[in-house]
Amino acid sequence: MRRLALGLLAIGMLLSIAFYNGYPTIFSDTGGYLWSGAFFRAIPPFRAPGYAVFARVTSLELSAWFIVLVQGAIVVYVLFKACDYLVDGQDKFRHSFMVCAVLFLTLLTSLPWLVSLILPDVFAGLLFLSAFLLAFDGGLRTAERLVLAAILGLSAASHSSLLPIGLAFVATILVFSAVIRASSGLAPKKFIWAWLIVPVIAAGLATASLNLSMNLGFRLAPAKNDFLLAGLFGDGLAGDFLRENCPSQPLVACRYLSNLPKTENEFLFVHPMLKNIDQREIDAIVDGTLRAFPLKFLAISARNTMRQLISFRTGDEIATFGEQDWNTKVIMRVLPADFLAFRADKQMRGRLLPLVDAAARLDAVAFWISLAVCALFAWLGRYPQINKLFYAALMFSLINAAVCATVAGVFDRYQSRVAWLVPFCFAVYLGAWVSE
After folding, report:
1. Of the candidates 274, 264, 271, 361, which has an alpha carbon nearest to the alpha carbon of residue 304?
2. pLDDT per residue as tens, the chain (436 positions)
3. Interatomic CA distance for residues 99 and 144, integer angstroms
4. Other C-beta atoms within 10 Å of 217: how many?
């Protein structure tokens, strides 16, 4: 009962942004997920259907409050499991530390903004922690492993970028684990690969099956190269390719040579080009651009990866929110009981932005201080178990940044999805130090 009460308190803290706003926060993509989940119809640019189904099921087709409540419960469960594994001491201390850690994350990181948001961004950090625990926590019971494996699969299926990120991270963590055990003279853990790989594969099959049900074909990403081409236009490489090749290639995109898209968002949501070119031409432009400028692409990808790593900002989803009319229509149709609360909340009236700006500055300071302290603890080597979490978190952040910067286009908010992991490592280090 004590654990349950503290868990409910932790969920309440993580939903503080939604409570303050008067309603769960939304982003420009929110309406697309809600609409696809309610009517099972895909809206271009096509996104992974996993979160759309999650939103429909957890909302009970009644209210978005249930969506964020379930998100908060999943986050708290995974954080409890992580603290149980990483922080020694009596149960009373671990439970109290867990609540203190959640309070720290609520006040000084992006986590409450992600939990309160109707968007799959919160599942990026959950993918990391669930995979880490499945790989390294040998004390998990079978039921706990099944729950974490389900969370890992749900996370990988929730967003189009998280499936390749999940595959890359699982491969990395398996190698990481094997090296650690080999250096310690320990035998490899049996079936560890199954607990990590099977949920990610299941997520891929579920995603392809849902896309097939929406008449998009049995494929992981119906949009294929749309987001990559958006990034190539944003970096200027696709424009250079078209200017060099349009005289010799009969491409529809050549009609827009004097007015090419200049940013990722312009290509995906504003410019008429995407509506007038088919998938074969998109693939041809991407293939031709990469063949023409391989070294430039690698150099720009490396630059964009570094940009993703350092340009995170808490509340980017709120600060860059658009499509207010579209989201209003979706809420009216999909969750009509929520409409009055939705229209009256602070976000819709522009009164959430001052808090976003203040939180972004405060969280940035907390992140860099946390990173410095974590690096110091890791260098001292006193807590090898927590060091694994810290190193793995840095590796996951790098993979997240690289995939989002190269495959998904350069959207800075993607890196803010996992920025809270470093302050969480900081809190765990402090908890281990106090418990001594």
Report:
1. 264
2. 778 888 999 999 999 999 999 999 999 889 999 999 998 887 777 778 999 999 999 999 999 999 999 999 999 999 999 998 998 765 667 778 889 999 999 999 999 999 999 999 999 999 999 999 999 888 899 999 999 999 999 999 999 889 999 999 999 888 877 776 666 655 556 677 888 999 999 999 999 898 888 888 888 877 677 888 888 888 889 999 999 988 787 888 888 888 898 888 788 888 888 888 888 888 899 999 999 999 999 898 888 888 888 877 888 888 777 778 889 999 999 999 999 999 999 999 989 999 999 999 999 999 999 999 999 999 999 999 899 999 999 999 999 988 887 765 555 667 788 999 999 999 999 988 988 7
3. 20
4. 10
Domain boundaries, the chain: 2-120+122-158+161-220+299-435, 226-292
Burial 284-309 (b: 16+ CB within 10 A, else e): bbbebbbeebeeebeebbeebbeebb
Distance separating alpha carbons of residues 322 and 328, to the nearest angstrom: 11
| Residue 362 structure tokens | 């405060």
Per the omega criterion (within 30 degrees of 0), is the bond before 44 cis? no
Residue reference for tokens 């990120």: 165
Q: Residue holding tokens 């009969």?
A: 250
Residue 427, amino acid: A
User: How many beta carbons lie within 10 A of that of residue 198, not counting itself?
Assistant: 14
Sign of CA dihedral 91, 97, 100, 104: negative
CB 73 within 8 A of CB 55: no
Query: Rounded CA gap, 115 and 432, in Å?
Result: 26
